[in-house]
TrEMBL record:
GO terms for biological process: coumarin biosynthetic process. Gene3D superfamilies: B-lactam Antibiotic, Isopenicillin N Synthase, Chain (2.60.120.330). This is Feruloyl CoA ortho-hydroxylase 1. Its cofactor is L-ascorbate. The lineage of its organism: Eukaryota, Viridiplantae, Streptophyta, Embryophyta, Tracheophyta.
Length: 351
């Protein structure tokens, strides 16, 4: 029978097998390094099946009623799904297929990619921050930074490059529209080039891969966290596993896969810039016993050298700033320096 590799971190990280390589060993149960303490596991009694996040038809996105529903969703839930977003089905399906092909590559090829990729363009990793975590997460991920076309051509893996690039080109238009609506509702009249650069100047397309897991109840696919983006645009497949924190701060709401939909969530940057009007809500992912799941978030981020803080427009009516000005690269480093820990990252920017 197969057994857990003696040097697990070496197997997962240095040899680039990832948790996919571990799952392929068909172990009867997960190694203790993946076993979450009881209090960190999702308590099924905390799931409220009668609640769900809004689904918004984006076809008439500049209709005031649609914009109101986006604003309501961003303030109340911090999460919503959009349908009719104009990214063609074929582009989405081709991308999903390419993501599976990427993770099916042999570990030697992934190791070669890891060793030859500049981390500011391509990063292949497992768990979240394995060197900062005492318990590992049941996930591998590839981050593709939406850099210059030249860098993309040089470094994004050929097996998924064209599909990922095509998807990003379409998604960019949707992202601009979403940010326009969200900012307009904060009294920002125009998404000028400078504001656009701050909010979406550094986008990352991530491929998350959660292999089928023999003990889904004891592992975290992704532990509770909020994203550190301005917004995140997430494409999930039809397996399911995403839960978001209910408004009572204690319950969890399931986010069902909806055919053709994208999940949108507010990240910490927009919570900070809106001085708390928009909420970046905690979420988590549960692994599946029999099926591999993929999800593909676009983290719409400020460039690392950007200073973020509450917008002058939201403070104009006399609101006290709740957050200080912080350098985004500092915020980013802080996020990755510790395990996922709910909403704690934003304390870094609190006054
Ligand atoms: O897999 C998902 O549905 C969400 C993943 C996630 O929260 C993240 O990558 O930040
Ligand atoms: Fe997330």
């Amino acid at each position: 029978m197969n057994s857990t590799p003696t040097n697990l971190i070496d197997f997962l990280v240095n040899q680039a097998n990832g948790v996919k390589g571990l799952a392929d060993l068909n172990l009867p149960s997960v190694p203790p390094q993946y076993t979450q303490p009881l209090q960190a596991r999702l308590d099924p009694t905390k799931i409220v099946p009668q609640e769900s996040i809004p689904i918004i038809d984006f076809s008439n996105w500049d209709d005031p009623d649609v914009q109101d529903s986006i604003f309501d969703a961003a303030t109340k839930w911090g999460f919503f799904q959009v349908v009719n977003h104009e990214i063609p089905f074929k582009v989405v399906d081709d991308l999903k297929a390419a993501v599976h092909s990427f993770f099916e590559l042999p570990a030697e090829e992934k190791k070669c990619l890891k060793e030859n990729s500049p981390p500011e363009v391509v990063r292949l990793a497992t768990s979240f921050s394995p060197h900062a975590e005492s318990v590992l997460e049941w996930k591998d991920y590839l981050q593709l930074v939406y850099a210059s076309e030249e860098k993309i051509r040089a470094y994004w893996p050929a097996i998924c490059r064209d599909q990922a690039l095509e998807y990003m080109k379409h998604a960019e238009a949707l992202i601009r529209k979403l940010l326009k609506v969200l900012l307009k509702k904060l009294n920002v009249k125009e998404l000028d080039k400078e504001r656009e650069q701050t909010l979406m100047g550094a986008m990352i397309l991530a491929f998350n891969y959660y292999p089928a897991c023999p003990d889904p109840e004891v592992v975290a696919g992704v532990g509770p966290h909020s994203d550190i983006s301005s917004i995140t645009v997430l494409l999930q497949d039809d397996i399911g596993g995403l839960y978001v924190r209910g408004s009572d701060g204690d319950s969890w709401i399931y986010v069902p896969p909806v055919e053709g939909a994208l999940v949108i969530n507010i990240g910490d940057v927009l919570q900070i810039m809106s001085n708390g009007r928009y909420k970046s809500i905690e979420h988590r992912v549960v692994a599946n016993r029999s099926k591999t799941r993929i999800s593909l978030p676009i983290f719409v981020n400020p460039p690392p050298d950007t200073v973020i803080g509450p917008l002058s427009e939201v403070l104009e009516n006399g609101d006290e700033p709740k957050y200080k000005q912080v350098l985004y690269s500092d915020y980013f480093k802080y996020f990755f320096s510790k395990p996922h820990d709910g909403k704690k990252t934003i304390e870094f920017a609190m006054i």
